[in-house]
Amino acid sequence: MELPFAESYKIKMVEPLRRSQRHEREQWIKDAHYNLFNLRSDQVFVDLLTDSGTGAMSDRQWSEMMLGDESYAGASSYFKLKNAITDITGFDFFLPTHQGRAAENVLFSAMINSGDFIPGNAHFDTTKGHIEFRKATAVDCTIDEAFDTTLDHPFKGNIDLNKLEKVYTTHPIEKIPLIIITVTCNTSGGQPVSMQNIKEVAALSKQYGVKVVFDAARFAENAYFIKTREEGYADKSIREIVLEMFSYGDAMTMSSKKDAIVNMGGFIGIREEALFQKASVFNIMFEGFITYGGMSGRDMNALAQGLYEGTEFDYLETRIRQVAFLGSLLKEAGVPVQYPFGGHAIFVDARRFLPHLPQEQYIAQTLAVELYVEGGVRGVEIGTIMADRDPSTRENRYPNLELVRLAIPRRTYTNNHMRYVAASLINVFERRDQITSGYEITKEAPILRHFTVQLKKK
Ligand code: F0G
Known about the structure:
458 residues, alpha/beta, Aspartate Aminotransferase, domain 1, Aspartate Aminotransferase, domain 2, 2 domains, five-stranded mixed sheet, three-stranded antiparallel sheet, 16 helices, binds ligand F0G
């Protein structure tokens, strides 16, 4: 008999979970104004809100925590992290930050001015938020294939070179300081960008004098997909692929809470000293001195260790296969999910799930609430609420896709939890015709509204 696949780790510490009743969840979600961010974690059974900072650290990471050097300046933990970052990413200069959006804040302060245009592949919401906060415009150049969830394309995170060149030729080039390549592309469904595409985008951008910045939160998962899907990379190690990917960039922002498997942390990798010097000033102002930048020594140690573990093939295979396991259970039951399955999450196509609901009633949010009520499973809306209002017209932006993201924390849940999640969603799918109305907004913030929005039933 062929031996089945099994996880490349075993469990040393556990955290109890409380199961709840449907009537309790109905009350809790009402009290939370139908915003899943407002739920308490003990009101949730399987929490797939995010894969960010929710993973399980390894015994080695925990032991590194004990070796943290908490000196304000020049801590050994800083140098340990610096060596790991140069080793894994190839960037010679780095700045620690407390998380990914802080890295965006610091780097963009040094690079983006009012009136600029920042092309990229479906910028993440905080990235877009930091661009728009500076009165600049994010221009989405993702390939069209990304918006058809039924299409099986291996690199749906790719940037359309024609769209990109159009941005470069129709705007004053001095207004385009950088392009952002998000690997993997979270907003388009955890979809990877091919090495070929990265290479071509970098060559085109160089021609126009535009700097290439990676939003690298899930860079290792991107490398896994390159290794397993792109011709010529099967025999390369994840770390070789990562080094090649970053060799095409001038800088990177990192949310270490994803592929570096820590609960908090971030950093900026920079190629040239001049940019590093410029960004250092903002780092000191917003984050902390350049040898800790919002992180404690112990956290830098755990992060350094996490960068090595997160770029091991066996770890990545276990992780991505678990995500695909959930995806295939849903696919077999006919639930409309995005293909191919993403690296960190399964994206449920809420428009195809609830085709009778109008987009003005927040289709994906409606589905996310139903899933919570059904099984205590918390996913997240990636649809009209997250797309927010146009900063100038203040009109709702209606995105092409209405998705519910089920993000899987790293090394945290078992495949039985995946079966439970699938069963919950399949139950909702079977009663989808009875879901006849959605929600309306009663209160919202002027930017990044999804975190605090309040809703009522339509
Ligand atoms: N870039 C990407 C692609 C992200 O997915 C995130 C965070 C960030 C930047 C910001 O990083 O949270 O450390 O400040 N994504 C989380 C998510 C929140 O749930 O996908 P952060």
